[in-house]
Every structure is written in structure tokens, then in C-alpha cells.
């Protein structure tokens, strides 16, 4: 069972500021949501963090043709 979590998607330095970047980050957030809802062995918050990080790496590799350093913050909701 997937724990209730909030995943923060932020970027620093690899995308320019602007509306296009905001749209890309919104799409990245949706990619993470799809990954976490797709099922699989979500045992704890750490597992969710790892799956979210992998989903972001895939998203940016596909969208940008490169893989930036990804750091994911996951907060478990009560």
C-alpha cells in the first residue's frame, strides 16, 4: 500500500527560469505521480523517494537528452 506522500520537484541551475520551465516541472511532477500510482512494492517513504528519483531521471533524460543530478524530497503525510 502506497503511503500518503508529497514529493517536491525543484530545479536549480539546469533549466532557465520562465513559463516553459514551469510547464516542464509540472509535467515532471505528473510523471512522478504516474510512477507512484502505477503499483509496485511501495513499502515505505524511502521506496517512494527512490521511485520518484528514477521517474525524474527518465523524464529529464527524455525531455532534455541529459540527466541532471536529481535530489528528491519526500514527506509522509499523516
Mean pLDDT: 80
Count of domains:
1
Uncertain regions spanning at least 5 consecutive residues: none
Largest sheet: 2 strands, antiparallel
Give me the number of helical elements. 2
Assign the structural class, choosing from mainly alpha, mainly beta, alpha/beta, alpha+beta, or little secondary structure: mainly alpha
How widely separated are the two ends?
A: 15 Å
The coarse overall form would be: globular
Task: Provide a compact summary of the structure.
The chain has 78 residues and is mainly alpha-helical.
Task: Please render the helix and strand layout as text.
Layout: E1 5-8, H1 19-37, H2 45-64, E2 73-76
Antiparallel strand pairs: 1-2
Helix pairs in contact: 1-2
Protein described:
- The protein contains two helices and two strands; from the N terminus they run βααβ.
- The chain is mostly helical.
- It has one domain (5-76).
- Helix 1 (19-37) packs across helix 2.
- It starts with a strand and ends with a strand.
Key attributes of the depicted protein:
about 80 residues
